[in-house]
Amino acid sequence: MKTRIKEIIREFIKEYEKQDCISTKWGEPLVGFADAKHPFILDLKNTLGSYHVTPDEVLDGAKIIIACYLPFAKEFADTYREIDEISLREWTVAYKETTAMFKKLNLHLISILKEEGFRAEIPAMASEFSTETFRSKWSLVHHSYAAGLGTMGINNMLITESGCCGRLNNLVTDLDVEPDEPIKEELCLYKKNGSCKVCVDICPVGSLRTDGCDALPCWDYIMRNADLYTGEGKTYTDVTGKTSNICFTDFCGKCVTQAPCAFWK
Ligand code: B12
Ligand code: SF4
Ligand code: SF4
């Protein structure tokens, strides 16, 4: 069943990308299966905060979280290297298109799993966050870590064996499959042996430090791009209601495009 799900995801994305209306180019998806009852996940209400919802609150009887990391195609990501202060409209579009595609992929998976007698639910709160706390009630990074997709970089991104220049998606299910475990090898080069801090040096507003991240300067910076590129739809909803819910596609991403861990090869 795990192999079949991986193949369904791969095929769906390949076909989706062929549409004339889609300009984003994606690479090969990585898929992992997290145990919804893994102590790391059950402890998130303590480690992150009681606001964080559990898989059971999304789907009663949740067993497995399907986690997907989808990299942007490397040649597509390379276009980013040519620019400096602001990001290209293409990236804003890529963010919006990837988010929209994930929603359709999730609906596709839900209907296939239903035919097989399984239930599945989208953790809708993953698409919302507060611009006061900069936290979502569903952390895609933490669940994808539990699914064995990668480890946490000091750029605040999940770094996978394919890199970190991509986006994450989760689906909560009651699938009956063997869960994957978090990977043991540290993938961030700073955490591994101190040999890199490119992301810290490259951040134009000092958001990233080797001992943590300050979300506010990053937020202010990427909102300049959001103001510039209006009309591209939204990737997120601000639960405080302070920012526009009509157009909310924010992007900078220098820390995930111009770092050695963006793509390992
Ligand atoms: C809020 C948010 C933002 C905010 C705040 C980011 C911040 N730095 O705090 C803003 C809008 C600024 C932002 C910017 C970006 N974001 Co953002 N963001 C989110 C969102 C919606 C919620 C994040 C959240 O609630 N995290 C939970 C809190 C508790 O985690 P945290 O504050 O990051 O800190 C924790 C980790 O550092 C962790 N930690 C430390 N060490 C370790 C070790 C291990 C093993 C683990 C598991 C954890 C861990 O502990 C900390 C506290 O518990 C998620 C989507 C989602 N629903 O998850 C996307 C998400 C994290 N963002 C993503 C991306 C790509 C970006 C940008 C590159 C996009 C851009 N706009 O240019 C930038 C990069 C900024 C950066 N380097 O952090 C991707 C990350 C993909 C990946 N490879 O991991 C996500 C998952 C969206 C997606 N669908 O893929 N983002
Ligand atoms: S750029 Fe280097 S230090 Fe920063 S997250 Fe990637 S590997 Fe770690
Ligand atoms: S997205 Fe840009 S501003 Fe935000 S942390 Fe990364 S490099 Fe810094």
What would your notes on this structure say?
The chain has 11 helices and 10 strands. The protein has helices at residues 2-17, 39-42, 44-47, 55-58, 74-78, 89-115, 140-146, 189-193, 198-202, 215-228, 254-257, and strands at 30-35, 64-71, 120-121, 128-129, 150-152, 158-160, 166-173, 208-209, 212-213, 237-238. The longest helix has 27 residues, at 89-115. The strands form 4 sheets. The protein has a 4-stranded antiparallel sheet, with helices on both faces. A two-stranded parallel ribbon has the order 4-10. By secondary structure, it is of the alpha+beta class. It has one domain (2-257). The structure holds cobalamin and iron/sulfur cluster (SF4) (2 copies). One iron/sulfur cluster is lined by residues 153-155, 188-190, 196-199, 259-261.
Spell out the key features of this protein:
alpha+beta; 11 helices; binds cobalamin; two-stranded parallel sheet; binds iron/sulfur cluster; 265 residues; four-stranded antiparallel β-sheet
Task: Itemize the secondary structure elements and their pairings.
Elements: H1 2-17, E1 30-35, H2 39-42, H3 44-47, H4 55-58, E2 64-71, H5 74-78, H6 89-115, E3 120-121, E4 128-129, H7 140-146, E5 150-152, E6 158-160, E7 166-173, H8 189-193, H9 198-202, E8 208-209, E9 212-213, H10 215-228, E10 237-238, H11 254-257
Parallel strand pairs: 4-10
Antiparallel strand pairs: 1-2, 2-7, 3-7, 5-6, 8-9
One iron/sulfur cluster (SF4) is lined by residues 203-205, 207-208, 218, 221, 252-255.
